[in-house]
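step 4 of 6: structure.
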Amino acid sequence: TQLLEQSPQFLSIQEGENLTVYCNSSSVFSSLQWYRQEPGEGPVLLVTVVTGGEVKKLKRLTFQFGDARKDSSLHITAAQPGDTGLYLCAGVRGSNYKLTFGKGTLLTVNP
Amino acid sequence: NAGVTQTPKFRVLKTGQSMTLLCAQDMNHEYMYWYRQDPGMGLRLIHYSVGEGTTAKGEVPDGYNVSRLKKQNFLLGLESAAPSQTSVYFCASKESGTSTYEQYFGPGTRLTVT
């Protein structure tokens, strides 16, 4: 059972365009994380959102946690080829900080 | 600091063979995790450990065993490999406490079972 639905699964855009990736669940998570993974490497944490309604910005990336702590979004402004990669959302559950991952969004930014 | 390292990086096994994947971290982290990543499936938790000498099952534990004899090492074993275990395996670690949720991932081991 996939508890986190991530969309879209694939996204190919031109440099300079904006995009949004969504992460939705019917379950409540204590926090939600976004990771970025490049080919041949492990995921690297971008951000953790903890409070319902929280918005965090990381340069051109804006992350939002839904008020009910069931969904999140990642918005990239003026995408660049260096943003290319697999973006994964992950929900934190339980006292042992186990992560439940979405299936990922493979983003390609074309020059 | 090397962070989280995994050995080997690549391995090909025949059905029925056994092997052990080694994960090592030099950050003195209490928590360690093993995930597998399959195309279109994201990462799924196999087993995890909350400290030296402890292990627990994750989402997809069948066919795998783990051990955490030393705090810095977390071993993942396949006793009788099956083609369904062809995957990329990632180890991760996390420090104890509630001040941070970040898991640090290793570079992965690509396993093919023929």
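step 5 of 6: annotate
 - The mean pLDDT of chain A is 92.
 - Chain A touches chain B through 26 residues (CB under 8 Å).
step 6 of 6: archive
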